[in-house]
Structures are given as structure tokens and as C-alpha cells.
Amino acid sequence: xxxxxxxxxxxxxxxxxxxxxxxxxxxxxxDPLIQQFIGGLPNPYTEADARWWVTEGAPxxxxxxxxxxxIADPATDRLLGAAGLGNPVPQxxxxxxxxxxxxxxxxxxxxxxxxRALAGHAFVTGTARLxxxxxxxxxxxxxxxxxxxxxxxxVRRAASPVRGGGRRDxxxxxxxxxxxxxxxxxxxxxxxDGRLTDGVVVLRAVGPSDTDEMHRLHTGVEVVASRVxxxxxxxxxxDRYCQGAQHQWLIGRTASMIILDATSGTxxxxxxxxxxxxxxxxxxxxxxxPHCRGRGYASRTVxxxxxxxxxxxxxxxxxxxxxxxxVASQRVLERAGFRREGLLRGRLPGGAGARADSTMFGLLxxxxxx
Length: 370
Fold this sequence. Notes:
This protein is of the alpha+beta class. It has ten helices and 16 strands. Strand 11 (about 255-260) and strand 12 form a beta hairpin.
């Protein structure tokens, strides 16, 4: 790429870095979010670091076959962020695309516009495949990837060092030269207005701050008895689950939600809709704290999830399984319109190496009861 060529995007201009950008680069790169997700940045980040980047680091990226552009406001030319290409593999026609956005420019679609513009220019100039890597918990960047036409391709385990020690997984998003510019399709859409509610219960997405309540719920004796296998999770495992729950939603695998009492806002439990894309069906599951049972929360949760699955996700079928002795859950499903479809012998891993049967229930569009 020609480092002197500006790239025009929707509401952004990608241009070479200039000495006039040094103060803004330094101010942006001390931001906690940028420091968190770009582990190779100096900390603390100083104007001397910014000057090195403008005069040496960015030009070196072009010299190595990549790119490092300033994202600028077309009207004022003020720095809004940075976008670039790294780790080029010429024989494969491949490179990695990355970006950061300054705190004063967020919420304006800057990252998406810059990523689309740079990707389009890369494809025109001969790149065949672009990878975009994000940490599992960086769902903001994952949404940018989707909006810019990138599709999920997997996870690279322990692919990135963490500041202070250790390593973390990176999610892989890919766009090919003949892919549309976005947004990429999402099998599991966001909840309308960020939640589902019937006025009595509220369902909203699980997030990193839910670790304590989720661990307390899923280590309860009665909930453990219904888990597969029937073993309590460690707090570390539950933290990983909550950190990655929104990523699982974005890639169309599982929508995991917290069940809240609509009046008090207290956590009543957890529910999931796990998607089987090839069959266009979803598996529904839920768990409640013991003190929240007998209040109709489970029935309301099942109906809200099923309605969302049919009307917003577009599922052709929903199903759920229970242990044969879990009569209470079977009644909840039947009241919502699920029909008993059979018994799968030894389907589930039980305790101490044993196997457990599973009673299967199914629901088709039009069968959900009020």
C-alpha cells in the first residue's frame, strides 16, 4: 500500500500519521480500554511513545508490507483513532486488520467505517483474506467485525500474551475479498430493547458482572442435581462462562440470560437458548434459585424464550430435555405447550461414570400456550 494515499470512508478519512497527531495519540493510548485490549502498548504511554509511533512505528508497518493509518475526521482532520494491517502473508494474500478508537470519538461508528474502508482498499489492491482478532470478552470489537462483514471462524487458544503474565484466547473473524461489506448475518439477534419481559419477570443477557450470582446459583445442591454432569462448577469456570457469554451469543451458538424479578430487580435464575443452526431448532433450559420456585417464574421464562425464538430468531422447532424424575420441570414445559416426545436412554452423563435417561419435549410454532 502507498503510505501517502488517503482512503475515504463514510464519515472518516484514513491518512498517514503526522507530527500534529502526537498529543492526540498519547491522550488516546492511556485510555484503560485501549491499554486492556492492546497488550503491547507501553504503560504508561507518553508523548515520546506517540512521537516514536508517528515517526518510526507507522512507517515501519508500511515498509513491512502492512499499513498503519490515522483515522481522521474529514471535516476537522482531528485524529479519531487508528487502523492498520499487520502480519501480512503475501503468498496467501492474507493480512490481519486492527483498529482502535479514541475515547472522544466512540459511539459514532468510527471503527466500523474505518474497517470497511481499509478492508475494501486492501481487497482492491490484491488481498484475498483478512483476519480480525479480538479477545473473547471484547464484544464491542466483535460487533464492529460483524458490522464490517467479518464472520466468526473460531478461537485461537492462548494466542496472545497478557500484560503482567499469562496468555488469553483470541476469537478469529474473517472476511474474504468476495464477501459483502456487511453487516454479516447474525443467527441470534439482540433482545428487543435489550430485554424480554412480561411485566413479572425480565430476561437480559448474561455479562461479566454476573459471575458471583451465577456461581451461587449453579453450585446450589438442587441445581447441581439437574446439571449435566451433576457437578458444581468452579468459580473460575463460571467466570470464563460469564466473560464469554456475549461472544457465544454473537457467533450464534447460545443466548444465555439472567432471570430477574421485574419489580425488585433481584436475580431469580438463569436460562439459555442453544441454537442448532443446521436444523433451525433451539434447545431451551433454565435454573431457578430454590426460594424463587413456585412463583410462576419458570413458566413465564419458558414462554418468553419460546416466543422470542419463534418470532425473532425464526426457529422452526424448540426442544427441551429433563431428567425423568424432574416432574416439576416437565409440568412447566407441558403448560407452555411442549409435547412429550419420548425417552432417550442413557443420553446424559451422570455422576461417578454412570449415565442418565432424558425425557424429551418438543414445541412447534403455533403450539405455544398463553
